[in-house]
Design brief:
With about 500 residues, the protein is of the alpha+beta class. It folds into four domains: about 5-90 and about 180-250, Ubiquitin-like (UB roll); about 100-165, Orthogonal Bundle (DNA polymerase, domain 1); about 255-370, Uridine Diphospho-n-acetylenolpyruvylglucosamine Reductase, domain 3 (2-Layer Sandwich), CATH 3.30.465.10; about 375-495, CO dehydrogenase flavoprotein, C-terminal domain (Enolase-like, domain 1), CATH 3.30.390. The chain is built from 17 helices and 20 strands. A five-stranded mixed sheet has the order 2-1-5-3-4. It is globular.
Length: about 500
């Protein structure tokens, strides 16, 4: 363990050094209550509305540039931005010198009450910076996808999307990253963070952010009761909404070895446990394009930028959307305790509601995803009350391999149907070794009644879940049958509406 030191980051053109604040102080609380940057607003305090959106910048591996991503300040703990750059709406432009994003919002009447506007401006700035760097320009649907984490309750999205298009018409004017690069190079020389301060209840609390995998593993083994925190997209709500104390915290985000995506000799993807949800889903959908819509509907961009796939899997929510996709793909977990590792199929990791197979001092090091075999058919479906940024009522990822029209190696994984994400063993058995025809699909749909006894909650009734799951199996057959398979877009209400609009 290193000696305690302050939290250090770059903000408003200066290196900031923070001591004494509770370790679970959020970035939003720091901005509004201590930095007096009140432009960033608090709406929901759970990462859902986007009013608190800020940009966080990290130095790339060669130290030459800074990558900026929009995240929710309300569920980011202050120690998590140690060594990074923090940008808020105050950094965009003054009232007498608006930048292209701000000017476009003014010109297109993109604000009424204005409460959500700073968050929209920050997300739009992230979009603007990314596309200017690549010499591209997003279409309206891409803008809508990128803005899915920002909610507006009065202006309406048309003028905001108009502003998103208009901001590229002005002469290019991107943020000056040179001061950020210089500052982050300086911060890179700091020793790994160990921060100590009283928690909100006055008890001592420590936060550790080791940089090497070996140090991380040794620390985790020595502090098995410490709370591992990756993106805090779930843990942040424990603090904000449930007023829970976390005790000692170990952050995963500074371990480079946990943030890599690699391709193994057998063609499998190895996704480090601290790889962001955005990067992990991008890699998965590049290999399996049928997962793209599930990726876009997984939470929101700010949540995907902060959260990690390893954290999503280790958390083990029965309504999480990551596990069904990975189980259907036959993913394996690499678990580590000290120097020792073991590999476990993901489907065997979950034991019961919010209980998993991790031993004391053990953690998820990586997720290994095999390359789909030739002839594999896979689809991912998410049913929720909202299209964007909502929790699933049912999530189904269905996969099988077709060999001369016969179904082999069926893997039907469902979330929202039981206390854990699990495979539908009876439904799989109903199709394995049979011709992939309507009778097989109907048999699988009926077998789901033996696989699951879903519950009724605020998201859906048990009867709805049972019927919807069966319908998804039939839809899977319609999209993958040998004769006249339907286009997946024609079976999506959202896609069908967009197609009608484009024709009109």
């Amino acid at each position: 363990m290193t000696a305690p030191r302050p939290i250090r980051f770059f903000h408003q053109g200066q290196l900031k050094s923070v001591t004494g604040l509770p370790p679970t102080t959020t970035v939003l609380q720091y901005l509004r209550e201590h930095a007096r940057c009140a432009g960033t607003k608090e709406g929901c305090a759970e990462g859902d509305c986007g009013a608190c959106t800020v940009l966080v910048g990290e130095l790339d591996a060669d130290g030459q540039s800074v990558e900026l991503r929009n995240v929710n300040a309300c569920i980011q703990f202050l120690p998590m931005i140690d060594g990074k750059a923090l940008l808020t709406v105050e950094d965009l432009g003054a009232s007498d010198d608006l930048n292209p994003v701000q000017q476009a919002l003014v010109d297109c009447h993109g604000s009424q009450c204005g409460f959500c506007t700073p968050g929209f401006a920050m997300t739009m700035q992230a979009i603007y910076e990314r596309h200017q760097a690549h010499g591209t320009r997003p279409d309206r649907q891409a803008l809508a996808d990128d803005l899915a984490g920002n909610l507006c309750r009065c202006t309406g999205y048309r003028p905001i999307l108009d502003a998103g298009e208009r901001m590229f018409d002005a002469p290019a004017r991107t943020l000056d990253r040179a001061p950020m690069v210089a500052a982050l190079r300086t911060l890179r020389e700091d020793p790994p963070l160990q921060y100590e301060a009283p928690a909100r209840d006055g008890t001592p609390q420590r936060v550790f952010a080791p940089c090497s995998l070996e140090d991380f593993a040794a620390l985790r083994e020595s502090l098995p009761a410490a709370r591992l925190v990756a993106g805090a997209t779930d843990v942040g709500l424990w603090v904000n909404k449930q007023q829970r104390e976390l005790g000692d915290v170990i952050l995963t985000g500074r371990v480079d070895a946990l943030r890599r995506i690699e391709v193994g000799a057998d063609g499998s993807l190895r996704i480090g446990a601290a790889v962001s949800l955005e990067d992990a889903w991008a890699a998965l959908s590049a290999r399996v394009p049928a997962l793209r819509e599930l990726w876009l509907r997984f939470a929101s961009p700010p949540v995907r930028h902060a959260g990690t796939l390893g954290g999503n899997i280790a958390n083990g929510s029965p309504i999480g959307d990551g596990a069904p996709a990975l189980i259907a793909l036959g993913a394996r977990l690499v678990l580590r305790r000290g120097p020792a590792t073991r590999t476990l199929p993901l489907e065997d990791f979950y034991l019961d509601y919010m209980k998993n197979a991790l031993q004391p001092g053990e953690f998820v090091e990586a997720i290994e995803v095999p390359r789909p075999a030739p002839g594999t058919r896979l689809r991912g479906y998410k049913l929720a009350k909202r299209y964007d940024s909502d929790i699933s009522a049912v999530c189904a990822v269905l996969s099988l391999r077709l060999e001369d029209g016969v179904a082999r190696e069926a893997r039907f994984a469902f979330g929202g149907m039981a206390a854990i994400v699990k495979r539908a063993a009876k439904a799989e058995a109903a199709v394995n070794g049979r011709s992939w025809d309507e009778a097989a699909a109907l048999a699988a749909a009926q077998a789901l009644r033996e696989d699951f006894t879903p519950m009724t909650d605020l998201r859906a009734s048990a009867a709805y879940r049972e019927r919807a799951a069966a319908n998804l199996v039939r839809r899977f057959w319609l999209e993958t049958r040998a004769n006249a398979p339907i286009d997946a877009r024609s079976a999506s209400v959202w896609q069908a509406v967009n197609l009608q609009r484009s024709v009109a």
